Amino acid sequence: MNIKAVSKALEAYTSCDVADALSKLKVPHGGFLAGLTMWSPKRQDGPTKIVGPAYTVRYVRKNYENEPQPSGHYIDSIPSGSVVFISAPARSINACYGGLMSTRAKYSGAVGTIVDGRLRDLQEHRDLDYPVFARDVGTTAPAETMRVAAINEPVRLNSDDQDAVIHPGDILVGDLNGVVCIPQHLAEKVVELIPSQSEADEKVAADIRNGRPVAESMKEHRSGVKKP
């Protein structure tokens, strides 16, 4: 199964479904990337979901002269169907992603952007009906304090609570529940696991609505869920 087919198959499921499958595969935290929530097209509301391979961009503080300086602008080389993942330096005050970037990303066929930092021009993203997840919002452009140092290279999540790395081509899933990262080599296994566990949960929910005890229903339906 290729990445496009994997992404298409995952569109039917939530980030929670994906995290459950990743937990069975022993991925820490079920692949959840803490602190990243939906800001556009609405703030934590609606059925918006993004699924696609990661196209990563890493910013560094502007005075880091030893870091490389890529040629060209990252926004002009986004592959269609991808999820743009922007990594800003930890605790950055300036935003690293704005409305013009979403305008270009949407034109290029990206399915959404995830900003491990601040975004700005919030209304512009919403007017574009373009999905953006981020840590927070801001007002000021990045040029004063940071610059791009790497494109399509592994980036580390800005978190003191978890050690997570996003690699180019990893499958990113984002919805109201948050953002989950599927390591590329596990993507097909996740697609294989989810249907049986989702069906089991539906049966448990039906039993609960009919008054059956949760423990009893889970024992019946979840014990047969497909194992990795």
UniProtKB/TrEMBL annotation:
Q: What is this protein called?
A: 4-hydroxy-4-methyl-2-oxoglutarate aldolase
Q: Where does substrate bind?
A: G98, G99, L100, M101, R120
Q: Which SUPFAM superfamilies match?
A: RraA-like
Pfam families from the xrefs? RraA-like
**Alphabetic keyword roster:** Magnesium, Metal-binding
Q: Which organism is it from?
A: Friedmanniomyces endolithicus
Q: Which GO terms describe its molecular function?
A: 4-hydroxy-4-methyl-2-oxoglutarate aldolase activity; metal ion binding; oxaloacetate decarboxylase activity
What segments bear the compositional bias annotation Basic and acidic residues? 217-228
- Annotated region described as Disordered, given as residue ranges: 209-228
Database matches in PANTHER family: 4-HYDROXY-4-METHYL-2-OXOGLUTARATE ALDOLASE, 4-HYDROXY-4-METHYL-2-OXOGLUTARATE ALDOLASE 3-RELATED
Would the keyword Oxidoreductase turn up in this protein's UniProt record?
no
Tell me which stretches of the chain form a coiled coil.
Answer: none
Q: Where does Mg(2+) bind?
A: D121
Q: Which cofactor does it need?
A: Mg(2+)
